[in-house]
Amino acid sequence: MFKPIELYIGLRYTRAKRRNHFVSFISLTSMLGIALGVTALITVISVMNGFEQELRERILGMVSHATVSGFGGPLEDWERVVKLADEQPRVEGAAPYINGEVMFTRGSQVSGGVVRGIEPELEATVSEVTGNMKAGSLQALEPGAFNIVLGNELAALMGVGVGDRITVVSPEARLSAAGILPRIKRFNVVGIFSVGHFQYDRSLALIHLEDAAKLFRTGDAVTGVRLKFDELMAAPHLARDFALGLPGLYRVRDWTQQHSNYFRAVKTEKTVMFIILTLIVAVAAFNIVSTLVMMVTDKQADIAILRTLGASPGSIMTIFIVQGAVIGFVGTLLGDIGGILLALNVEDLVPAIESLFGVQFLPADIYYISEVPSKLRWGDVTRITVVALVLSLVATLYPAWRAARTAPAEALRYE
């Protein structure tokens, strides 16, 4: 005899009989509903993870892990800050910068943007621009030459390439015989970069630090110093420790403070999507209730005979819990397989669908990221699997309890 008997009978009841095909059909739809819910949940959470990672990497590729600026004004003694940063074992790079909002003009084309003055040698230690040059090189930014490197979207908008000239208009006015005029300077385009983040590719331009000091008349001061640590996620407490070791008053901000809205929004969206898609699994799990209630009604005589043979109410409950658990387990397993396969291949499937139907789901001029990334995390798969199995088991409790309360005499009265 198959042991334990409850498991044997529960598994036997999951198979279709001649007279209960409708019950088996409901069982099948319950399995498929759970499978679809788990597949959607794993895929969506993986895509949200991919967006979060891509957004973090692309933003931090230009923003750095932390910045040190003057308290209420420009940073005067930036050389000392860079020296102190170089002495820290967990600081991989430190580079000064000067930021200023400007207007770019060339012929009839006009566009607003940001000019960032950098030291080309130091910039490579805190930024990914060097590795994302489409044309030219950062090393062409020589002091006094008034050369400029543009984002590829900005260069395309202005219609310029390497070797062309572009005019930069600073909003800070100067007095002249003709009255108050903005400062205007012509720059030579010596490079074009593309970091894959539309905001920077569209509005950012890089010039040498000395040229930026002349353009914005900052003298020896800079906007701040950008820092890069050896571990991204440790940046908050590393930045705090570094700030405590600085002599004087400085403003130190890490990437979680500078771009908290982006990552908080992504985290909130991921949580909401998890809750919404879990409801799909819950609805499928409630189908198990319908299946088992109909099964209990159909098996009244069997239950009564088992009770007269000595089966306890707990055994009867176990039989129907096993049946519901099998439905939930199979559906969850199929959902896990489908979700994992889809999450691992969504980056290839989406371009194929876009090419087939001639559409673009994420236009680059609207979204920060124009591709659909995916990052499967096994912790998320485990959590989703546990939630689906728990919902399936909970759905079996009421029908199983109802079956356990079946009175043998009442059930066999009309048999």
What is the element layout, followed by pairings?
Elements: H1 5-13, H2 21-63, E1 66-70, H3 78-86, E2 91-106, E3 109-118, H4 120-123, E4 133-136, E5 147-151, H5 152-158, E6 165-176, E7 179-193, H6 198-203, E8 204-208, H7 209-216, E9 224-229, H8 235-244, E10 250-254, H9 255-258, H10 260-298, H11 300-308, H12 313-357, H13 378-404, H14 408-411
Parallel strand pairs: 3-8, 5-7
Antiparallel strand pairs: 1-9, 1-10, 2-3, 2-6, 2-9, 4-7, 5-8, 6-7
Helix pairs in contact: 1-12, 2-10, 2-12, 2-13, 10-12, 10-13, 12-13
Describe what this molecule looks like in 3D.
This protein has 415 residues and is an alpha+beta fold. The chain folds into 2 domains: 5-57 and 262-411, no CATH class; 66-231, no CATH class. Helices cover 54% and strands 20% of the residues. The protein contains 14 helices and 10 strands. The chain has helices at residues 5-13, 21-63, 78-86, 120-123, 152-158, 198-203, 209-216, 235-244, 255-258, 260-298, 300-308, 313-357, 378-404, 408-411, and strands spanning 66-70, 91-106, 109-118, 133-136, 147-151, 165-176, 179-193, 204-208, 224-229, 250-254. The chain has a 6-stranded mixed β-barrel with strand order 2-3-8-5-7-6. The longest helix is centred in the C-terminal third of the chain and has 45 residues, at 313-357.
